[in-house]
Specification:
The complex is a heterodimer of chains A (about 160) and B (about 180).
Chain A (H helix, E strand, L loop, with lengths): L4 H21 L6 H20 L7 H19 L21 H16 L3 H15 L10 H13 L4
Chain B lengths: L1 H13 L3 H23 L2 H18 L9 H25 L7 H8 L8 H12 L3 H12 L4 H8 L3 H22 L1
Helix pairs in contact in B: 1-2, 2-3, 2-4, 3-4, 4-8, 6-9, 7-9
Classes of the chains: A mainly alpha (about 160), B mainly alpha (about 180).
Chain lengths: ~160, ~180
């Protein structure tokens, strides 16, 4: 935007007397008392802030600390690394089963399942049977029959 | 000369001389008050803003890097504080925290009472309230503080071209408003 300098000068001249009056009013001696009082108020406020104990925390800082402390306490009380136990749907557990027993069982099952090895299990079983001579003929069984036995054992969740 | 003095005062203050800060306050409080008063049109608000400015200055003076003059820096703080104050006030007014409460005490303690040319001063102050904040600020800094566009630009961070346009519009409106009053 192009500003008309002449118009600007004219406008400034028009109100120059009022501007001068306003500016003169700012330098009255009678206002010195007020400004001395104002300056003292400033010094007083600064002194108060300096002398303020560290215990008088900034409210924002206070709330932040409160949040951190409550978070730390709740973190200690609740071990977030624990697995969530879903409602018990397993008939093995009754309402009276203690939480500790339930947890122990679940942990054991987990560990067991991780190491589950049906082939080794069958081999061990066969070795055991052979050694104990319960069924002598089992080692002579054809493969399809052996598989059938294995499937039966598996389906009955004996493993 | 004054600029050197200001820097010396800052140095002294940063070296632990509290009296140096008092000298800075004594030197600038009047200017800050009148700037804030022009912007806010209220003695009590100007009083509050002036106190705030110096408390901020006390806390932040160690960050002053001598890139600009101290008075430019102080005016920058004042400008920011004043604009924030206006925003807060508008929010308060929106929630009906009326400023009508001021009117009673204003007549008792305002330093502008019993002026010889009270009407003219009130006219200017009222006219300033009818222009935008940006225009008001540049008008005050130019006419009441006698600053150059460069100095105003350093304080407000606005371009000189933009400031000139703002000033022209402000001047035009204020002149019209003062004519209407008469």
């Amino acid at each position: 935007m192009k500003i008309n300098e002449k118009e600007l000068d004219l406008l400034e001249n028009e109100i120059s007397s009022k501007i001068s009056t306003y500016n003169e009013s700012k330098d009255r001696n009678r206002d010195n008392y007020y400004f001395t009082h104002l300056n003292n108020k400033i010094f007083e406020k600064i002194d108060n802030k300096k002398n303020k104990s560290i215990l008088f925390l900034n409210p924002k800082l206070g709330y932040a600390l409160l949040f951190l402390i409550s978070f730390a306490i709740s973190f200690e009380l609740i071990n977030f690394s624990n697995k969530t136990i879903t409602p018990n749907e397993d008939y093995l557990f009754s309402e009276t089963t203690s939480w500790f027993e339930e947890k122990q069982f679940v942990t054991d099952v987990d560990v067991y399942e991780i190491n589950l090895d049906y082939d080794s299990y069958i081999t061990n079983e066969l070795n055991y049977i052979e050694n104990t001579s319960i069924i002598y003929e089992i080692s002579d069984l054809p493969e399809n029959e052996l598989n059938l036995i294995y499937e039966n054992i598996k389906s009955k969740k004996i493993l | 000369m004054e600029i050197v003095d200001d820097k010396l005062l800052v140095d002294k203050f940063l070296n632990g001389d509290e009296n140096a800060f008092k000298q800075i306050v004594n030197r600038y409080s009047k200017k800050i008050y009148w700037h804030a008063r022009g912007m806010l049109n209220n003695h009590f608000d100007a009083d509050e803003v002036t106190q705030e400015v110096f408390i901020v200055l006390y806390k932040k003076l160690h960050t002053f890097n001598y890139d600009s003059n101290l008075y430019t820096w102080i005016y920058r703080i004042t400008s920011t504080r004043t604009l924030n104050f206006i925003r807060k006030k508008k929010v308060k007014e929106f929630f009906s925290l009326s400023e009508a409460n001021y009117s009673n005490i204003e007549s008792e303690t305002d330093i502008q009472d019993h002026f010889e040319k009270q009407d003219e001063i009130t006219q200017i102050e009222n006219a300033l309230q009818k222009i935008s904040v940006k225009q008001r600020e540049v008008f005050i800094l130019k006419n009441f503080e006698g600053m150059t566009y460069q100095e105003i630009s350093d304080i407000t961070g606005k371009s000189i071209g933009g400031l000139k346009a703002n000033y022209f519009h402000a001047l035009k409106k204020v002149t019209e408003l003062l004519k209407d009053e008469n």
